[in-house]
Design a protein that fits this description.
Rossmann fold, Four Helix Bundle (Hemerythrin (Met), subunit A), nine-stranded mixed β-sheet, 16 helices, two-stranded parallel sheet, 500 residues, 11 strands, 2 domains, alpha/beta
């Protein structure tokens, strides 16, 4: 059975289009993500009206999918939400632009706003957007149970896209239409992998901020954060990074010296920090402020690297400056105190009740994927350039895999290795794939950064931009390197569409 509903794009505006990945950061990181997504939603509506005036009709379809594509004897199914926008389509031969969803709910915004939609208008393309299985509305009522999560994987997600391809091809009687897929962050990796594994279905792919190399211990994330905090191009400085590192060194010293009452008071913790697990959440929350602001630099007005560094360098008291950063974030997110309790932190991973009205990322599902496929754990315990607490350990991440998902610590690296063997890590040798990354984005560390003329991979590296910046609708205020990068992407896709 298939359920179809037509409506105007401006009717529903509460869900999110781009779901950007993290490993298991504290609540502060997720709060920044929420601010970013709300800003993106509001900006998309404003930008569309500014550029195109009235709205476009976007159709929503609930497509029945096998729960397990790789077991012919299984009859279980779920319904996957997809959006279709044919208003710019040059029927019947125009290209199909497939926007791939990720680790959260997908909104109709994915079919009416963004650089891929601008290019669809330019090239006469149909836009199809597919929500990822087990996120948003594309999940069964028991989908968060552990025995069901085994059906949540990138491989199953790619197989879903083949069925979406078949549905669109059959419904619109397509013959030789070229398909180009798009995705950012985890869906950026999926975009590259869809082209890599199903080249007979998709002609080319754009993979923005795509961490195609899975990595259990992702130390490089915070190394890039440190570099970004020191980059004068975006308002950073070496002094800023040094002050951040000094402040966290003092915190580690106070933790080891059992000065947790003072820490709880100074950083307005809702409860005690006497337990080691609560201390881990506490430093995670503090570090998450810097991680989130760097990853989404300038996406929320007034929340950027320049502001953080101005506060961190306004006096020689690095510890006091960090307190001000914490207070600034509390004010921004309307918190009277910071919840650093491990039980609250853990609740997002253990909750098995599906809430179809919830907004934001599917935390339980995504952490399952990190444990069973990708790792991506952002640590700080080894002697690297990481400026944060050494309490951000690999063990503190892996213990969640064991306690919540029954995946032992020694199995996670094996799953990560399988993912890299299966897809080719950061040397996939795919054809007609554009890898787009920003210098400020910590996730570029795991992407493809050099073009391969032999295979046909194109790398676009944008100085001074953060996570998935190229995917947004253009603005006159965009920095010149971002404008130039979009033109490179557009030119490459134009050349693909001319191929016979």
């Amino acid at each position: 059975m298939m359920f179809v509903l037509k409506y105007l794009i401006f009717v529903f505006t509460v869900n999110f289009m781009l779901k950007d990945i993290s490993s298991i950061p504290g609540h502060s990181f997720w709060k920044i993500k929420e601010l970013v997504e709300n800003q993106r939603e509001n900006s998309a509506i404003h930008d569309y009206r500014r550029l195109y005036g009235s709205g476009q009709t976007v159709e929503e379809v609930l497509l029945t999918q096998p729960l397990d594509h790789f077991d012919a004897y299984s009859s279980e199914t779920y319904k996957q939400k997809i959006y279709i926008n044919v208003e710019n389509w040059n029927k019947p031969n125009g290209p199909i632009f497939l926007f791939i969803g990720g680790e959260g709910a997908l909104s109709n915004r994915s079919a009416y706003a963004g650089h891929h939609v601008e290019m669809a208008k330019l090239f006469g393309g149909m836009v199809v957007a597919a929500e990822h299985r087990f996120y948003g509305d594309s999940i069964n009522d028991d989908g968060l149970h552990l025995d069901q999560l085994q059906h949540l994987s990138s491989q199953q997600g790619l197989a879903d896209l083949t069925k979406v391809h078949n549905y669109i091809t059959t419904r619109y009687e397509l013959i030789d239409n070229k398909w180009i897929c798009f995705g950012g962050s985890y869906p950026g990796a999926l975009s590259a992998w869809f082209r890599l594994k199903y080249p007979h279905l998709v002609f080319g792919a754009v993979a923005s901020s795509a961490p195609v190399q899975a990595q259990t211990d992702f130390q490089g994330y915070n190394e890039v954060v440190a570099q970004s905090l020191a980059d004068p191009t975006v308002g950073g400085s070496k002094q800023c990074t040094a002050q951040v590192a000094e402040a966290f060194q003092k915190i580690d010293s106070m933790v080891s010296g059992h000065q947790t009452k003072e820490l709880a008071k100074d950083f307005l913790s809702c409860g005690s920090l006497s337990e080691s697990n609560d201390q881990m959440v506490f430093v995670n929350n503090l570090a998450g402020i810097f991680m989130g602001v760097v990853q989404y630099n300038n996406e929320v007005p007034g929340l950027n690297i320049k502001k953080l560094c101005n506060i961190m360098t306004e006096s020689g008291d690095s510890y006091g400056n960090l307190q001000k950063i914490n207070q600034m974030m509390m004010k921004t997110t309307n918190q009277s105190c910071v919840d650093n309790t491990y039980s609250t932190f853990l609740s997002g991973f253990t909750n098995q009740t599906v809430d179809r009205h919830a907004v934001g990322p599917g935390i339980r599902q995504w952490v399952w994927q990190t444990c069973s496929q990708f790792g991506y754990y952002q640590t700080c315990e080894k002697e690297t350039t990481c400026p944060f607490s050494r309490l951000l350990t690999l063990e503190s991440n892996l213990v969640i895999c064991k306690e919540v998902y029954k995946i032992s610590e020694n199995m996670v690296p094996k799953f990560v290795q399988f993912t890299n063997d299966y897809y080719g890590a950061n040397h996939p040798k795919g054809t007609r794939i554009i890898f787009v990354n920003g210098s400020i984005d910590p996730w570029h560390f795991l992407s493809v950064l050099k073009s391969d003329q032999v295979s046909g991979e194109v790398a676009v590296f944008i100085n001074g931009t953060a996570h998935c910046a190229d995917m947004a609708t253009h603005k006159s205020t965009d920095p010149q390197p971002l404008k130039e990068a979009r033109l490179v992407i557009q030119k490459e896709i134009a050349s693909w569409l001319k191929e016979t």
